Amino acid sequence: MNQQIGRFFQQAAEARRTGRNGEAQAALTHILALQPGEPQALNMLGMMALENGDFHAARMHFLGATQSDTGEPALWMNVAAAQRGLGDGEGERAALQRAIDIDQRNFMAQMRLAQLQQRLGEVQAAADSWSKVLAMSSGMGDLPPQLVDTLAEARGFVTNHQARLASFVEDGVAPLLADADLRSQRRFQACLDHEFGRRPLYQNQCSGLHYPFLPADEYFDRDHFPWMAELEAKTDAIRAEFLGLIEQQGGNVRPYVRQDPGTPENKWTALDGSLDWGAAFLWEYGVRNEAVCNACPQTVAALEALPRADIPGRAPSAFFSLLKPHSRIPAHSGVTNTRAIIHLPLIVPPGCYFRVGGETRAWEEGQAFAFDDTIEHEAWNDSAHLRVVLIFDMWNPHLSLAEQQLLKQFYATADASRAQDALGAGV
């Protein structure tokens, strides 16, 4: 930019600032005489015309500026503003799309497009565009109050649209869904809930061995455990043995959470060493607790009749889980997805719940279920009474017998290697 043009720009800016639009226009006209098509001068003339409500002139100047500076999205945004003033919705759409084609991250262009689509009654397109705008805004810092209000209205629009769409779709699939088996119903309903933003999907979070390609199923289908009904039939006997156990010097109940000394404060700190969540183990990592097992022969017989995992130092585990009134087990995930965890509820007052991933259930006495504990889960007892569940582990039902044997050999070999290393270190 030469000095003469620079002086004219300064004159135009000062004149416009003080409301002397005629002088500003004259200075800009001089610039265009010296440098035809100068985009900044054309843009300033367009802005002045826009402010005066002369949308035809504004559009002409802005389009002229875009011919000289084809890669500036702000110029196309200004074209869109002029087109809107003229009531030309398609012209506005085309200009906004040009700005977006230059920079897909142009927040204001995306927002103006969503507003245009909403004004034109293009409900689905507007909902999609507003969803994109809301996603973009989540990473932005402090927003001006007017924009905050606009985004709040956008959330309401998207939410209402999703609800209407969900209702329409659910009405359409209702007859087929009603005829489907329970497994298909549960999985398809979870699909709908996720699609319409009503629930997240959770994946395995293994702190130990993560076995590939197993389904990340929050609750396993009962079909995988044909013995479950027979176990449920023994609920009364198992409960009676637990109550008898408790009468014997507290039933060998100990805090479930026992952290090493010096462990930094974490989500388990409140339960560390506390009987708010207590456990009476029959087996713990493959080791039998004779005192508890001897007091509960029918429970032991019921468990030993099941095809449990047998991995020395790791499995099986089985225990009575006691959750005191108004206590909560925080959200967490387990060690390995090679196992399934079984709950047989024994004593369940109202107000006791269990969540795995996106599904929350109320325990019901005598109704067992299986879940993958490497998917985030939590439990709470909002009642004024004790909640008791028999908990034990099984193989993940999606593992073949060959895979189970391979895993047992893997652990045996790994443990032997560690033992050999320990012996070698002492030589």
UniProtKB/TrEMBL annotation:
One of its GO terms (molecular function) is dioxygenase activity. Keywords: Dioxygenase, Oxidoreductase. It comes from Sphingobium yanoikuyae (Sphingomonas yanoikuyae). The lineage of its organism: Bacteria, Pseudomonadati, Pseudomonadota, Alphaproteobacteria, Sphingomonadales. Belongs to the aspartyl/asparaginyl beta-hydroxylase family. It holds the Pfam family Asp_Arg_Hydrox. This is Aspartyl/asparaginy/proline hydroxylase domain-containing protein. One of its GO terms (cellular component) is membrane. Residues 233-397 form the Aspartyl/asparaginy/proline hydroxylase domain.
